[in-house]
Design goal:
mainly alpha; globular; 102 residues; 0% strand
């Protein structure tokens, strides 16, 4: 697996720009249970610049109807990020005291 450089500065810039607005590139899921994971995915994508288009266990967004469950579902994005061994971002579960803010 090719290592990708996660660019936190891009995530921060994106979050600061769109936290109180709507990026028109992405569908608004407020009426379908909430938009938080969609916004988190947008931020993660800004930092990684890569999606995983695997139909079975990927993490991707094409449009409001064509996206992976992990793009908008909390339990699915957690599973994707902590289990991903393929293309796209990944993460590890840590205690809250070990979260890096910078």
């Amino acid at each position: 697996m090719k290592e990708i450089k996660y660019q936190r500065n891009k995530v921060i810039d994106y979050a600061n720009k769109w936290a109180l607005l709507r990026n028109p590139k992405y569908y608004n899921y407020d009426s379908q249970g909430g938009d938080c994971t969609n916004f988190a995915s947008q931020c993660i994508f800004q930092g990684s610049g890569i999606m995983n288009y695997s139909k079975n266990n990927g993490w991707y967004y094409i449009n409001g109807n064509e996206k992976s469950p992990s793009w908008t579902g909390v339990e699915f994005i957690f599973k994707f990020l902590t289990k991903n061994k393929s293309v796209g971002p990944y993460g590890i579960e840590v205690e809250k005291e070990k979260i890096e803010l910078r």
